[in-house]
Amino acid sequence: MQQSIEIAGHKIGPEHPPYVIAELSGNHNGDLDRALRLIELASQQGASAIKMQTYTADTLTIRSDREDFKVKGGLWDGQTLYQLYQWAHTPWDWHKAMFDKARSLGITIFSTPFDETAVDFLESLDAPAYKIASFEMTDLPLVKKVAETGKPVIMSTGMATFDEIDESVATFCATGNRDLVLLHCVSSYPAQPKEANLKTISALRERYGAVVGLSDHTLSNATAVAGIALGASVVEKHFIDSRSSEGPDSAFSIEPEELRRLCLDCLTAWEAIGQVKEGRTLGEKASMTFRRSVYAVDDVKKGEIFSNANLRRIRPGFGVAPKYLEALLGQKAPRDYVRGEPVKESDLKLLGINEK
Q1: What is the pLDDT of residues 61-92, one digit of tens each?
Q2: How far apart are CA 253 and CA 238, in angstroms?
Q3: What is the DSSP letter of 36?
Q4: CB burial class (10 A; 0-12, 13-18, 19+) of residue 238?
Q5: How far is 258 from 280, CA to CA, in rounded Å?
Q6: What is the DSSP string of 260-314?
Q7: Which residues contact 250 (CB under 8 A, 6 or more apart)?
Q8: What angle separates helix 140-147 from helix 162-173, to the nearest 10 degrees?
Q9: pLDDT for res 47
Q10: Is 205 in contact with 33 (CB distance < 8 Å)?
Q11: Is pLDDT at 237 greater than 90 in this prediction?
């Protein structure tokens, strides 16, 4: 697997700034103008990409009122699957306008295909990448079809066991495609932070050697920022102009100002990770003067005995380290000192005191 991938000129991986995806989903509420406005808003707030979903109710399910096809509990309780997907889908004849809008703004756009016909359609639009949803990652024929495009693929792993992820990753890699990002995900809507289990992010990276990230359905940005600190290179959040619009995913989507903060906070978290600290940062070098060191606190003549009365460990830090005070006490001063003058390393050498 690749340690970093590239989507439309954006390099993605641990050595690169976080890749923040604004998930449009069905939050356009059936209004193309609103969909185009959401793309514009995502671009303005600093998102790396906007993602849509490509399906119809008929490519996902069948029209049926049988109990198997009814949603029970949660945000969509009582609806049939067909009703839900008919409400939430993005019409295919909108896609070109949405792709053109994103490209005109310089923001990357790609989609989640939910069947093979959607992959073919998105290929006709020259999609730069693909997303495989958590619910589709066990659909191995679809995984194979998407991988065979040769494009980078981001795969969510909600609900999946490691055995299931193993199968999906093996199916993907068997095509020769290695540009895969695995997103840890909790497929609850909304998800509870206490169920986020973000340690899975590092487990995915260690097990598969892939770029990893987080598809976050919690109601705040704290979980996503913590995910960055634990090694996520990608964060995906559902995005809406206003939660009061009552779209299909509005209850767990973030608004423009929240998206702006998410982008900034994820970048800050990534910058703060840095490297294993050895030695001093530039900021710390300036602070070295506030360390304690050994100073003459009275005038001392050459040959006079150093004592606690004329030497002390005080701030600032221009003298030798405090650990040398004990070795200096009882020694004859190698030169004259005035009150407020530091004992220097050269003084240690004159006295034969080994520096440690």
Answers
A1: 999 999 999 999 888 888 999 999 998 999 99
A2: 5
A3: H
A4: buried
A5: 35
A6: HHHHHHHHHHHHHH-S---S--HHHHHHGGGS-EEEESS-B-TTPBP-TTTEEEE
A7: 27, 240, 242, 243, 244
A8: 40
A9: 98
A10: no
A11: yes
Domains of the chain with CATH codes: 5-273 (3.20.20.70), 282-350 (3.90.1210.10)
Look up residue 296 and give its two tokens: 């003459």
Tokens standing for 135? 């619910």
Task: Count other Cβ atoms within 10 Å, centred on residue 33.
Answer: 9
Please tell me the predicted confidence (pLDDT) of residue 311. Answer: 98
Question: Is the Cβ–Cβ distance between 255 and 240 less than 8 Å?
Answer: yes
For residue 314, what are the β-bridge partners?
293
Kindly state the helix (H) or strand (E) to which residue 163 belongs, with its residue range. helix 162-173
Report the amino acid identity of residue 261.
R
Beta bridge mates, 5: 12
Question: Which residue's entry shows tokens 């995913």?
Answer: 249
293's tokens: 């060191």
Whole-prediction pTM: 0.88
State how far the Cα of 210 lies from the Cα of 166, in Å rounded to an integer.
Answer: 12
Beta pairing class for 311-314 and 293-296: antiparallel
User: For the chain, how many residues are written?
Assistant: 356
Burial 164-186 (b: 16+ CB within 10 A, else e): ebebbbebbeeeebebbbbbbbb
C-alpha 18 chain-centroid distance: 5
| Residue 184 to residue 256: CA distance in whole angstroms | 24
Residue with tokens 């070795």: 327
Two tokens, residue 228? 């960055």
Cα–Cα distance, 118 to 42 (Å, whole number): 24
